[in-house]
Design brief:
The complex is a heterodimer.
Chain A: H1 11-16, H2 27-44, H3 50-72, H4 75-94, H5 96-108, H6 110-115, H7 123-150, H8 157-185, H9 189-205, H10 218-227, H11 229-242, H12 247-274
Helix pairs in contact in A: 2-7, 3-4, 3-7, 4-7, 4-8, 4-11, 5-8, 5-9, 7-8, 8-9, 8-11, 8-12, 11-12
Chain B: E1 5-16, E2 19-30, E3 34-38, H1 45-52, E4 60-65, E5 68-69, H2 74-80, E6 81-85, H3 96-106, H4 111-124, H5 140-151, E7 158-162, H6 170-185, E8 189-194, H7 197-203, E9 206-211, E10 214-219, H8 221-228, E11 231-236, H9 243-254, E12 258-259, E13 266-271, H10 276-279, H11 282-288, E14 295-299, H12 303-311, H13 324-338
Parallel strand pairs in B: 3-8, 3-9, 6-7, 7-8
Antiparallel strand pairs in B: 1-2, 1-4, 4-5, 9-10, 11-13, 11-14, 12-13
The chains are: A mainly alpha, B alpha/beta.
Amino acid sequence: MTTLDIGDNSALRQAIRVERRPKRPSALATTLTFTHRALLKIKHVPEQLMDATLTPVIFTLMFVYLFGGAIAGDPQTYVQFLLPGILVQSVLLITVYTGFTINTDISKGVFDRFRSLPIWRPAPIVGALLGDSVRYTIASTITIGLGLILGFRPEGGLVGVVLAVMLLLIFAFALSWIFTILGLLMRTPNAVMGVSMLILMPLTFASNIFVDPATMPSGLQTWAQDINPVSYLVTGVRGLMYGTASFGDIAWVLVVSAILTGVLAPITMRMYRNKT
Amino acid sequence: MSAELAVEATGLVKHFKDVKAVDGVDLRVPAGSVYGVLGPNGAGKTTAVRMLATLLRPDAGTARVLGHDIVDDADDVRFNVGLTGQFASVDEDLTGAENVTLLARMYGFSGSEARRRASALLAAFELSDAADKPVKSYSGGMRRRIDLAASLVMSPKVLFLDEPTTGLDPRSRNQVWDIVRLLVAEGTTVLLTTQYLEEADQLADRIAVIDHGKVIAEGTAPQLKSSVGTGSVHLRVADARQREDAAAVIERVIGDEVTRPNDPYALAARVPQGMEEQVAHLLPRLHEAGIAVPEFSLGQPSLDEVFLALTGKMPEPEDPENEDWDEEQTEQHTEEEAR
């Protein structure tokens, strides 16, 4: 270790005399800086992409070949039904990392550094959410690619598939606010993970992702068909991929996303401001 | 008057559930000085600084940093203060250069300016060789320097340092002290919290001693020392069995209570106001009593003694090698528990 030079003309003295104070950056620029940070973290900790890449592969293969025959007669028929739903599940399952990441930042003290900066307050959270959408896109690409190999044929064509993924990203962004709240609320990153999974399980499994809710007992059917917002999303995504989407299917998803964001984002920001 | 104060806090209060972490703290930090907030673990130092840095909203009281209200003009405060400590850290997964560059971007530097600023700061803190290594691979001293570099991106007018040398080896600690002195020479106001009395004595122009969320004493180090007495006597006896005899002699001569440090040979006593003359008689009296005294010194009281006199208990052990990091975690933990 060298001794720091603190003499009159030392680099240290020079460096602490900042010649120019830049103008405060715009909200957008700050948000994108935080997105950049999220991407840098993916670069340095590529392990965090494991879930985004392996989970969709394992789930798709497992459901198509394990249950495909039993549920739909043969895997080929089932993959055509399942793929849009398993795409939704794959992406929603990795939204939990949003809360996990925020909680880790809090426990490591990085978060307080950001809060002490003169920046647009939602930037750290919105930037992180935008960074997460990169992960969602990777997971979507892998799931759809695998589906195509397994015989999935989207009638809606490339446009339908792209629109379906976009709809999914919008919903994932809206749903992520639940996990930012958990991230701010819980004590440890692992607790955030646990509770998030508890929330996601009924949302994804008790839905129309794997089977038609018509086969379910009435209480469960009501939840899976009429209440669970994920089912609306799956219906929308299926519609776009099959080329049969109605305006209502899509509008419902957008309305639910808007409501989730409109209610949860302000709660998140309030908790963020008052975080002790 | 208030123009000369960099930080002015009046009656700051913060409760976590029913624990009064900060219970009516007043601070007046003159611009361009080093102000030490000294106290044991859990005294409320960190909570007070978090409020001043706009991270916590006070339950009661007001504070202004460079004239900006910490609640109403929080962004102006944030623009002018830097923050380093257990609660404001850099990202361990990213490299040193990436961390500082990102911060510079957040302050509004353009991409290339931000990179230039980062490499200048890293070079200044002798971190150029480690610039492209993840921060988690840094040593404790490097870690503290990157934290400091990160808080100096904008050359803040006021710098809050929360226990800046906790957990550092003496060499790294001296480096941090040098940096603090240099910053102040360049016109920065530094408010630092510490549980090391020596640190406050070495660095701070004024010191607030804080305990259980209250300022229990305030002043320059010499003022604090003299408030306890004009000085103190330290001695060691040659034979530990004679310590009590020696203590009796001292109490008779200077008429004040004697403290008995852990060392079984040592004795210490404050010299009360007006008793300075009597101290000179101590050695002959001890000699008459047949007590050999190989070590005898007279000096200003240490801040340890100040603390003892003010709170009635000795502060936390001052050993920088062992427990610091854990202690620090514990303090944070206690405050979390309290929430």
